[in-house]
Amino acid sequence: MHMKAAVLRAQGLPRPYAGSRPMTIETVQLDPPGPGEVLYEIAGAGLCHSDLSTIEGLRPRKLPSIPGHEAAGIVREVGPDVRGLKPGDHVVSVFVTSCGDCRYCNGGRPNLCESSFAARANGTLVTGARRLSLNNEPLYHYSGLSVFAQYAVVAQNALIRIPDDVPLEDAAIFGCAVVTGVGAVLNTAQVPPGGLMAVVGLGGVGMNALMGGVIAGAERIVAVDLSADKLRLAKELGATDTFLAGNADVAAEIKAATGGGLDYVIETAGAIEAMNLAYAITARGGMVVSAGLPAVDRVFAYPHSALVSDEKSIRGSYMGSCVPKRDVPRFIALYRRGKLPVQKLRSGFIGFEDINAGFDRLADGAVLRQVLRPN
Questions:
Q1: Which of 12, 21, 28, 347 fits as disulfide partner to 57, beta carbons 3.0 to 4.6 Å?
Q2: Architecture label for domain 180-318
Q3: Across residues 344-367, what is the average pLDDT?
């Protein structure tokens, strides 16, 4: 079939992207789903900082490709050997397509499945196939999804079925922002009721981490960001304290206000400066959880002696340490009960013609989650 899609041809082009146009809107060819694969129609796709990092050239990928890894839509066709999904099902995509039978999948950590990482590096589906082309030349898949398009063919384990009454424009961000942010709090950090926590960086993932803290029943939720507007929304979503980052004394101010720092600090900015601040405001015996992805060559350094004497711990959190088939339905249920109001994070809808400018707005820190409506 032929469809409209945003094709990324070059990384590292100068801003504004509205002028340099790293993505061009093309009519591309999408082949039918093969064994274990599903064709679904994209209802909404979120513009995420991971996509921005790829456009900036901070995370090299094979090109040309169709970016996008956070979406929701409706199943239109299933290939042979697909189980549990049928045409008409409403689904959310997840950006780690687990194989279901490796040491990580069998150990309850499908977010670390190495087959997904190999496919991402090669620009294929986890099945090894490539279903995209333009003018008879192959296009690479992005994170096994490539959802900045009207349709996508993906491996069946990349999709999680959701109830039909959940608005797809809200469901679109569950496969990345929600699972990463909420999961970092509930799964990785395991913040207990009454816990003292902070979130450093209030993008889409950070705001979800903040809401995860509210769900966990944290007594103190400190929100830290460079944007006063985001701090105001953080208060509305449940932050007990807010601090404007960028001030040289902000770490000392937070430690003074919290009696020595927080027990759980979630870093979601994907910047070493944010990680340094997160570590600085972690109390003795506390844990830093980093869910942000900086450029691949950036290094975080810490005083090792103090790590030992203060008994701090540092943990990474990839995809919120989630088991998608367990956690996406759980988080959707919280949304339906009003406990996870992700619609408050939506910064508006855009069409293909505005996608490059949309990433300018994201790079400026002026938005949380813009949702592409490709159809």
A1: 12
A2: 3-Layer(aba) Sandwich (3.40)
A3: 96
